[in-house]
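TL;DR need structure tokens for one chain.
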Amino acid sequence: MLQIKALRHSYDEKAMISYPDWNVEKGNHAIILGNSGCGKTTLLHLIGGLMPPKEGSLEVAGENLSKMGNASLDRFRGEHIGIVFQKPHLVRSLTVRENLTLSQYLGQRKINKKRTDEVLEKLGIKELANRKVHQISQGQAQRVSIARAVINSPKLLLADEPTASLDDENCKKVIDLLKSQAEETGATLIVATHDHRVKSEFKNQLAL
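>> reply
TL;DR here they are.
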């Protein structure tokens, strides 16, 4: 599912970040560990096709993202990758359901109300479907963010610091939720975090 070789990236051509070679098999769950500023989020964004790497090879689902332009990366991400960002980044003017419908549209998928209802129900937030984003709690918004990430049944599910601001009980719940949703859709899950509480939940680990 994921293969990284001699990967390097820089935002200003001065401070180059070098990443270890790494493989993650299809259906595997993996974690990227490291302190703030070590390049975890950058690596997750590279894997997620949010930007092309400066050097090296990065393959996702058999496609070499290193050779794709921005338009191709956008299209590939919409079709194959779901991302749970640190902040939900939901469209506040839309309802919960409309946010998921927008993801289907941007992913060039058929608008599927039944699929939307199924995902919302499995995440325990179906009753929020018609609420605007500003009318729900932070915890509910996080679940909507997960719903948006899995709505198109991605091959790869990425989560950036999903437990950073959570207590121990909710930390475990969110990781279990991400895993269950990944398994539900047959996706490979990769979590980037500095939270060592979740380290034992993943056998495949990349320390930066």
